[in-house]
Amino acid sequence: MDSKTVLYSEDRFNEIVKEVGEYLKQVGYKVEKKVKFIPISGWHGDNMIEKSDNMKWYKGKTLY
User: Fold this and answer.
1) Contact 41, 47 (CB under 8 A)
2) Which of 3, 17, 39, 57 is deepest in the core (most CB within 10 A)?
3) Which long-range contacts (CB under 8 A, 24 or more apart) does 43-48 make?
4) Can you give the pTM of this predicted structure?
5) What is the C-alpha separation between 24 and 44, in angstroms, rounded?
6) In this structure, what DSSP letter does residue 39 have?
């Protein structure tokens, strides 16, 4: 999410969720029931343990 091409964008996150979700469905995962998508930044720790101010639009849980 911290890439200069993404800049913590909710729109880009939603695009990724759609694309990856469709692929996971094709290989047999029950995406709606079993898969949680969490926007994180491994470089900066955004949404890893604590909520990030960079992604105020995200209302879900953190990774940990």
Assistant:
1) yes
2) 39
3) 43/2, 44/2, 46/1, 46/2, 46/8, 47/1
4) 0.85
5) 27
6) -
